[in-house]
Amino acid sequence: MNAAALTASRVSGTSAIRAPPRRRAAAVRAPTIVVSAGRRARRDAHESGLESGRREEPASLPSRRAVALAPVAAALLAPLVAADPARADTECTECSNSNSSLAPGDKPFVQSPSGARFADLREGTGATPQPGQTVVVEWVGYTSGYQAKKIESTRETDAPYAFKLGAGEAIPAFEEAVSQMRVGGIRRIEIPGELEEKLAYSRDPSQRYAVGPVPQTLGGRRALDFVLDNRTLKDFNRTLLFDIRLSAIRK
Question: Where in the sequence does UniProt note compositional bias of the Basic and acidic residues kind (predicted)?
C-alpha cells in the first residue's frame, strides 16, 4: 500500500484508511494568438488603399487579402535583388525586420546599402525622376514597431506630398525610394527603428518636421511623436512602415 497516496490513523486499535483529497482539475486555457504590430500594420496598409477605384492584388503579393492599398512599391532594385532574404532573417536580432515574421506568400523586403528595406509591390511604367525635379507622391504610414498606429494616409486627407528630389526636403528614406521608382509604381518602405533618426525624423521635436512628409492631422502627429519621444521604448519599437505611390513628376 502506498503511504503517500493513503493516510492511516489509529482508531480504537484498528487502522482507518482515508483516501487523499481530490485535486481540482486544472482549468484548460485557450492558447493566446499574438499578432505582431508589424504584421498588423502591413495588413492595415493592405486594406487602406492608396489607389482609387477597385482594389487589386498584385500577382506577386500575399494571397491573404487584396493588397491594393497604399502599398509601397517601385522598380529599379535590380542590384539589390541578389540579396538573400533568408540570410537577412537570421541576422534580425532586434525584431525590427519584418522579414523575420513573414507569412507564407508574403513578399520579402530587400535591404538597401543605407539600411532601409524596400518591397516593390507594383512596378511603374512611366519616367524615373531626376535630381532637381519635383515629385508628387501618395503615401500612408504606420508605427509598425509599436501598436501599428496609422500616421497618415493621403487618401484620407486628399493632400498628396510634393517635394524636390535631392533638395533635402524629404526624409532620406523617401528620397532614396522615390529616386529609383517610375511613375505609377508602388513601393513599401520599412525603416528599422535603430536607423529611424538617420533615415527618417529627428528625435529633436523642434527639428522633426523640418522635412516631410509631415502628418496633417493631430492624431497622426501624436502617433509619430509618441514612438519617437517615449524613452521607455526600445529601438525596434520605433520601426516605421510607409507605402508610397509615385503619381507624377513636375519639371
Answer: 44-58
Strand ranges for 114-239 from DSSP E: 117-122, 134-143, 149-153, 161-164, 186-191
Residue whose C-alpha is closest to residue 142's, from 98, 205, 82, 91: 98
pLDDT digits (tens, 9 = 90+) for 144-179: 988 889 999 999 989 899 999 999 999 999 999 999
223: in domain: yes
Region 106-116: what's the mean pLDDT? 86
Average pLDDT over residues 8-36: 46
Which of the residue ranges 89-93, 176-180, 223-227 would you say has the lowest mean pLDDT?
89-93
The C-alpha angle with vertex 60 and arms to 54 and 65, in degrees rounded to 5, equals 50
Give the whole-angstrom CA distance, residue 151 versus residue 240: 9
Residue 130, domain member (yes or no):
yes
Please indicate, yes or no, if residue 29 is contained in any of the structural domains.
no
The number of domains in the chain is 1
The DSSP code for 239 is -
